[in-house]
Amino acid sequence: MLLSEQAYKKIDKEIAKFPDDQKQSAVIAALTVAQDEKGWISTEVIRDVAAYIGMPPIAVQEVASFYNMFQTHPVGRFTLTVCTNLPCALRDGVKTADYLKQKLGIDFHETTPDGLFTLAEGECMGACGDSPVLLVNSKHMCVRMSEDKIDAMIEEIKRHGESA
After folding, report:
1. Predicted confidence band of residue 124 (pLDDT cuts 50, 70, 90)
2. Cα–Cα separations (whole angstroms), residue 145 to 35, 75, 91, 100, 114
3. Residues 23, 12: Cα–Cα separation, whole Å
4. Which end of the chain is more exposed for a tag (fewer CB within 10 A), N or C?
5. Is-contact 52 14, C-beta < 8 A?
6. Confidence class for position 145, pLDDT limits 50, 70, 90
7. How many angstroms separate the CA atoms of 87 and 96, rounded?
């Protein structure tokens, strides 16, 4: 078992939401728990989750690689995903991405040397009217991100980590 006892208890709570013969329906929740604990979804974690919920590893891999909220390679402690889909691009989404690239000194799919930030490009986040939009660790949406707001967010994360 690769995850903590607490992680398996969380997965068990998710599995309990489905009929006994459909516990594979908890695969997204199980991968989320695993990623929250490990930081990313490795091949070993995929095999472990598959065995735990009774699915073929390839089926779990398909889910992990389909959804962009799952990281299937090591990433920084904070993944910043910028929406560059057309509506956001027209409202400074690309400009925001370029600013983050310059500010962090990295490109998309790269991680800062200190391992703190990974920058990713995202598709529609459903908040076009609030563009530019970015997600922190696929959980916290930040809207109307000006350069000043980006600077403040990055400093807050550096000072306070996950409580930011």
Report:
1. confident
2. 26, 22, 11, 11, 24
3. 9
4. N
5. no
6. very high
7. 13
In angstroms, the CA 80 to CA 135 distance is 6
**102: closest CA among 27, 61, 154, 53?**
154
Check if the beta carbon of residue 77 is closer than 8 Å to that of residue 116. yes
Distance, in Å, from the CA atom of 145 to the CA atom of 66, rounded to the nearest integer, reads 27
pLDDT in the model for residue 69: 87
Crossing angle for the helix pair 43-53 and 27-38, to the nearest 10 degrees: 140
DSSP characters over 59-92? HHHHHHHHSTTS-SS---SEEEEEE-SHHHHTTT
CB 100 within 8 A of CB 147: no
Provide the 10 A C-beta neighbour count for residue 127. 17
Q: Is 100 left (phi over 0), alpha (psi -120 to 50) or beta?
A: alpha
Average pLDDT over residues 143-157: 95
| Strands across the sheet containing 110-111 | 110-111, 117-122, 78-83, 134-136, 140-142
164 pLDDT tier (thresholds 50, 70, 90): very low
